[in-house]
């Protein structure tokens, strides 16, 4: 077990290459199950979620070759093996195996998803969609059993705008008979990426990126080659880190349109931002101003950036209020920030940040992926050394975190935990 050490106070400058999007990758890999021949996915991030999903495909008979960036998946020998436990529990996105296996085999058994603990994360809208397509869905001893004689297109209205439900229903519907319409669909760029790979396989999908998606089922899907979009949340995290500690940082391999809401808020704080085709340049003034932020579904401010931006706002002059309308319990980073000297209170769904705190290095624990990102941002700003445990969360989503930060001039390294530290981490 390791901890991440950050000696704070060193300004960031230089350029950084953004990796392929985690939240696309975790849907594109299951999508490959639907094809009858080899699917190649390029520009995958080297993160543990990708490796876990590749192993899941192997568990059900898929043949996978992966060089750390390109994955070739031959799904021709995949069989609908039940996946009730084990690896499937370690990441939430394993729920995409439900839609993909149901679409291909009309049956699946998948353990209820794990992943980051952000409060209750129901999957009722996924199930509503599968049932509308004709599947019988039961929950037995912590696993979801799905079975359909046939899948028939249906009109499905999502009661909650959900990224996962929109993608999962698309995966199940692409081979259903007739037309499926998803109303009140989510519009995140990762959904467009999934629709793009499915279309390259031969699926017929229209309206992705709007709130009504129409899918006309086809009998067969073929292999294809697909290159994944850049990770807007990774880019956003480094933009926030640059706003916290940067002199001038250039982000390469970014789609600036995907980051409009973050850029608007950073500009309000006084950060200077220039964009080009696939680049964003950030230059930070010596002082930044407080802002209020509300997370919303895309194209609103991403909930995944709420935690890192809360860390940034501890250095702003004045009081900021950050409200998370997507997850009501995504505030487990706040106690850790306060340990470092921040002044943040949680009231309901909002974090109230009294700014201009001088953060001090401390021993802190990442409780989930983006809480980890928030602690990294705080560690970069803090005086002295910050020690972050819970790295398994950070490693699920950030490729080469230390290397990228070192390239920008940060002082970061990993150390092995002593046995007494391991006991402390386990009991906390
Ligand atoms: N919801 C329901 N019922 C459902 C599905 C969702 O009530 O059936 C609620 C959720 O509880 C939440 C809201 O709807 O309050 C939105 O959830 P959504 O389904 O959109 O989230 P998700 O698909 O589970 C993905 C990302 C998350 C990201 C959210 C919101 C992946 C693998 N995960 O989760 O990413 O926060 O969308 O944008 O794509 C992360 O990357 O750190 C992360 C947690």
Automatic annotation (TrEMBL):
GO terms for molecular function: UDP-N-acetylglucosamine 1-carboxyvinyltransferase activity. The modification 2-(S-cysteinyl)pyruvic acid O-phosphothioketal is found at residue 116. UDP-N-acetyl-alpha-D-glucosamine binds at residues 92, 121-125, 304, 326. It catalyses: phosphoenolpyruvate + UDP-N-acetyl-alpha-D-glucosamine = UDP-N-acetyl-3-O-(1-carboxyvinyl)-alpha-D-glucosamine + phosphate. It is found in: Cytoplasm. Its EC number is 2.5.1.7. Residues 7-405 form the Enolpyruvate transferase domain. NCBIfam families: murA, PRK09369.1, PRK12830.1. Belongs to the EPSP synthase family. MurA subfamily. Cell wall formation. Adds enolpyruvyl to UDP-N-acetylglucosamine. This is UDP-N-acetylglucosamine 1-carboxyvinyltransferase. It comes from Salibacterium qingdaonense. The lineage of its organism: Bacteria, Bacillati, Bacillota, Bacilli, Bacillales.
